[in-house]
Amino acid sequence: MKFVRTILVLLVLLTPVVSAVEVSAQDTVTIEWWSVNSEEYSEEAQRALAEAFMAEHPNIKVNLTILPESGFQDKMTTTLGAGEGAPDVAFFWDTNWYPQALDLTAYIEADPDLGPETYFEGFWKTRAVWQDKVVGLPLGVGANFVMYNKDVFDAAGVAYPTDDWTTEDFIRIASEVADPDIKRWGGDRPRDAYRAIWNNYGAFLYSDDSTTVDGYFNSEANIAAYTWLWDLVASGATPTPADIEILGTEGTGPVDLFMAGRLAMATLNQGHMLNAIEAGVPFGIVPEPQVPGNERYVNAWSLTSSIWAGTEHPDEAYEFLSYWVGPEGQRFLMENGNLFPSIPEVLAEYEYADQDYAQAFFGVLELKQVAEWKNEHPCFGTVNRAVSDVWDLVELGEIGRDEIASTLNDYMDDAQAALDECVPRLGG
Amino acid sequence: MVSTWRNMSPRTRREALEGYLALLPWIIGFLAFTILPVGISIYLSFTEWDIMTDPKWIGLDNYERMFTNDPLFTQSLKVTGKFVLFSLPLKIILGLALALLLNLKVPGMNFYRTVFYIPAVISGVAVSLMWMWLLQPDTGIINTLLDQVGIKGPNWFWDPDWALPSVALMSVWKVGGSAIIYLAGLQNIPQHLYEAAKIDGAGRWARFRRVTIPLLTPTIFFQLVIEMIDSFKVFTEAFVITQGGPLKATFFYLLYFYQEAFENFNMGYASALALVLTAIILISTVILNYTSKRWVFYESE
Hints:
With 428 residues, chain A is an alpha/beta fold. Chain A has helices at residues 2-27, 43-56, 69-82, 105-110, 121-127, 150-156, 167-177, 196-200, 220-235, 241-247, 255-259, 270-279, 314-324, 327-335, 344-347, 356-364, 370-375, 380-386, 388-395, 404-410, 412-426, and strands spanning 29-36, 60-67, 89-91, 129-130, 133-134, 137-149, 185-187, 263-269, 283-286, 297-298, 300-307, 368-369. Chain A folds into two domains: 28-141 and 301-368, D-Maltodextrin-Binding Protein, domain 2 (3-Layer(aba) Sandwich); 143-299 and 370-426, D-Maltodextrin-Binding Protein, domain 2.
């Protein structure tokens, strides 16, 4: 009996303690955050960022899970598709995931510190807004530009390219600086159509309303862009696709060839720029060449960071998202990693912002983005696949310069059929 | 006679129950991870599904499109068919030839067997990257060696005429795996049959033709079926190296399936593609099985 009484007393004494623990657990909300590890934002930096956030927000616990890139893609697709198990906050880097992202419009409107004006306009348009809804916030920026190796140009006695150069200048300069005797190429070739140079020509795959390829795929602008590619291939000043594939670096661009001085000009990105600085390679940066009289484009990207529409804690998730992708978080990742923030005000604080290369890089971020059209046209990939032979025929030198227009016409039916099949399914 | 549950003794019943209990994990696994996904795939093949929203029933539309209005389906089937016809005989013959070599009684044979088996266990992606380097037209070792003997090597993966043979060549590199199976078959052939043939005056070639080949036909048949299925499923090489090009010369069926499912978010159509491939493999296997009655011999026969 004494034993039973002791147990009862202990239970009565423990009850307030247990209740306190329960109350404390109820007050703390856990946010699941999925991310990946990269040179721009290491796992260590992201964990430190989560800790810093939790120190400021003791009622929110952020549980960070780092996944490999391929695993991230698969897990996000399957959990979003299944409608359960997805993280509260994550990168929504695939536009097909956007329907599952929480509409942040109301949050943004109510947020005095964060809004469209906070970010670069181009990245807000392409990475935050989708179908008139705010589906996420853009984390970091990246862009393609042409890097030229100053040593190679100096040795060849050729003047550096300038910001206002044209596509014709590109071929001319590449030919001048190339030297087949020492296996040195002048400039690389694009890896696919309908990127910056195609858009600079005013060439798009199909109509803006996604109804027809006629007048677009076979347009004068498209013929001009493919003719430019034909001329570049014929110039012999550019590596073959096999050379690029092998001597390029993991599909990201021929940075190794460039650094070794075997490629005078290469279309690279800000990560390669940092590699070149580290290697002590003297270089300059210009935007991809323009076509006089036309709007100039840049192939740029950012990571849409979103809240899953199925989250049980949207307010706390937004609290974290706006910290992570807002000025504080992006500044933290810039100072503790290699992230270039998508917020101009924070980017201006970059340690080497006054350097020429940094100014040139910042300059291309202001250009109109290739993604602006592509994001609004989810059938682009399907239609482009149907006509990819045209690209191969030009690259392989299998057609003559005067056969480009007729070849494009030969693929009109395939392009239209692909568009007609895809638009009812994915929209236009 | 099969006993019924009613007339079984308690002990037999207990043993039967224990047997089924032991089988249960496999049965659950088979139902959950094979039958259920196949059933769902069959259902999805009659739908339009972008993964993110609910599947929409569209009846036979996916199949109708596939057989009447999809040039990429025809192209991928043609390319894969060519690859099977080209690579399968190569793999069967070279696998057998390698097994015969590995069956020789020479010192250090276990080392050679291990060396030849290694390619079979290396990741397909790593192998693809390695072959990309080997077959690089300007700097690759194969063309460099060909150049030494005055032959201008082709552009391999980057030439529409050579891309498919290049992938077939790559697949041959992995014959070490099938050679081990052949080797097991070779070592199961009773020695006394060779001795009897020798006494009858049979030479090396006659012994190989009259004893080895007939008694190896069950293994050859097994390998034929397995390698055929494997050839139909070719994917990694195209995914890593060629992306289906140039000029869709390596646009394999599974690459098309992958693009439709995970890049084009057309999961319903991809399910239909998967089922058609399953049917093709099933029919090919049935045909092979039917013909096997004429050329496969078992020791007991």
